[in-house]
Design a protein that fits this description.
CATH topology: Alkaline Phosphatase, subunit A
Number of domains: 1
CATH architecture: 3-Layer(aba) Sandwich
Radius of gyration: 23 Å
Shape: globular
Distance between the termini: 34 Å
Helix content: 25-40%
Strand order of the largest sheet: 4-16-5-15-14-1-11-6
Number of strands: 16
Largest sheet: 8 strands, mixed
Strand content: 5-15%
Length: 467
């Protein structure tokens, strides 16, 4: 039992507070993992098998490519459809989630026409506003939902962003280093950085767990350098004034933040070392599926070690060629119906993503926390930055939620399809994001920009069916 009056180091305070809260019966922090794929998430292939005849129709040819006309589409509805998943079979591309079906909510029919359509909505997918063009992310109007949640539930690393590439379009080459995929934003015109290199992400998050002599020396040097730079900036501040002094204050805040992060990490060194992932050749591989698996391993370990409460993983971009899944075209080409079996390859990519999500969920479920497990206090959100398809119209925007019972979300095995666009009781992706925010205790009634072609009141507040 923790003593209420026990003295604790400031470095250990967040973790001791969590332990004390659990001992007192308080709920652990609610965590969020966003997995955002490119080129649309096919609504028809999220429908449970027994509902296919009722809810799925053969679609029209809406893109180029000899095989695109075979694509299936979701049948419109003017009523809310709410079915339990218990006696239904998940679509084959989602089969890995069958063991977690009682924690899954498939949410269909939401629109996002306040965002741009086409290849990507850029920041709009998570910010619910219009941004960017075909090849650039454009202006950032405001914060995205993952950044808001990260600020609301702070941790040593407020947000962890992982991806295989920063550019949406472009060639098939894998990118390295810090990138800006045009997906997450802290505030107006302030992007959230992502790490594209698994090994570098590992070192940034788990450097305190280093055991090799070279890494230990590097850590000490980094700490000494930060101390020197903070002191140097403070000395320089006393000799200047005006705008330059304000700039120095911004730099000082940044370096002091890094120094404090290192100190806090040092205070939880044993915990981080215990949960750090084992580095394998996946961390240096140039095969995209290896790197994606490594990113999921890193995300899982960061959550379990208590380093962060919010992770966003962008597995691919339109230029990604899934050689690890034997795809013969990149994501962009497959979206246009090119190659021998574009629909089959898109299904394989979706299946691979779902398998990674399931691995993450299984690891969290096996980790005790409070009176249950970490999965009880985590919500995983799988969706696309481009709505329902390649060259999305944004009239449909499917989501798959995997959530624990402590999340305050009704994700306990449900298929939800909202009335089609402009029908009564139709809702938007902004309502879904507000639902996540309300679950975390961050309550607001509007988010992003409104769709002027919809009733304003219907765009207020969370999805009551899920709260």
């Amino acid at each position: 039992m923790l003593s209420a009056g026990a003295a604790i180091s400031p470095l250990l305070a967040p973790f001791m507070q969590r332990a004390r809260a659990e001992a007192d019966g308080a709920a652990p922090p609610l965590r969020f993992v966003f997995v955002v794929k490119s080129s649309g998430l096919t609504p028809a292939e999220l429908v449970p098998q027994e509902m296919t005849d009722e809810r799925v129709v053969v679609g029209d040819a809406t893109n180029s490519g000899p095989n695109y006309q075979q694509a299936l589409q979701l049948k419109p509805t003017n009523t809310l459809i709410d079915r339990p998943l218990a006696k239904l079979t998940l679509h084959e591309s989602m089969a890995a989630l069958e063991p977690f079906k009682d924690r899954v909510a498939i949410v269909q029919g939401l629109s996002g026409k306040m965002c741009r359509g086409g290849h990507s909505s850029w920041f709009g997918a998570m910010g619910c506003y219009r941004a960017g063009g075909e090849h650039d992310s454009g202006n950032i109007i405001g914060p995205t939902i993952d950044a808001l949640l990260a600020k609301h539930q702070p941790s040593i690393f407020p947000h962890v962003g992982l991806t295989t590439r920063g550019r949406l379009m472009g060639g098939t080459s894998i990118e390295d280093g810090v990138v800006y995929p045009g997906l997450s934003a802290w505030s107006r015109n302030r992007q959230v950085p992502y790490q594209a290199t698994p090994l570098t992400a590992y070192k940034e998050l788990f450097s305190v767990a280093a055991t090799s002599q070279d890494d230990l020396i590097a850590n000490r040097l980094n700490g000494t350098l930060l101390d020197f730079m903070v002191g140097d900036i403070k000395r320089l501040q006393s000799n200047i004034a005006g705008a330059e002094k304000e700039k120095l204050e911004i730099y000082l805040d940044g370096f002091e933040g890094l120094r404090e992060r290192q100190r806090r990490l040092k205070g939880v060194e044993a915990q981080v070392r215990r949960h750090a992932p084992v580095v394998t050749d996946k961390y240096t591989s140039k095969v995209e599926t290896d790197r994606i698996e490594a990113h999921f391993d890193i995300a899982t370990a960061a959550l379990i070690a208590g380093l962060t409460n919010v992770v966003t993983i962008r597995p691919d971009g339109l230029g990604t060629l899934y050689t690890g899944l034997a795809a013969d075209k990149g994501v962009h080409g497959l979206g246009h119906g090119e190659g021998a079996d574009p629909i089959g390859h898109r299904r394989n990519i979706r299946r691979f993503h779902v398998e990674q999500i399931t691995r993450l969920a299984a690891k969290l479920k096996s980790t005790p926390e409070g009176r249950g497990t970490m999965l009880d206090n985590t919500v995983i959100v799988y969706f696309s930055d481009a709505g329902e398809k390649h060259h999305a119209s944004s009239t449909q925007w499917p989501f798959v939620l995997v959530g624990g019972p402590a999340s305050k979300l009704k994700t306990t095995g449900r298929y939800l399809q909202y009335p089609s666009y402009q029908q009564p009781r139709h809702r938007t992706i902004a309502n879904l994001h507000m639902t996540l925010a309300h679950a975390a205790g961050l309550k607001f009634e509007t988010f992003g920009q409104l769709d002027l072609n919809l009733d304003e009141q219907s765009q207020h507040g969370p999805l009551r069916e899920l709260v």
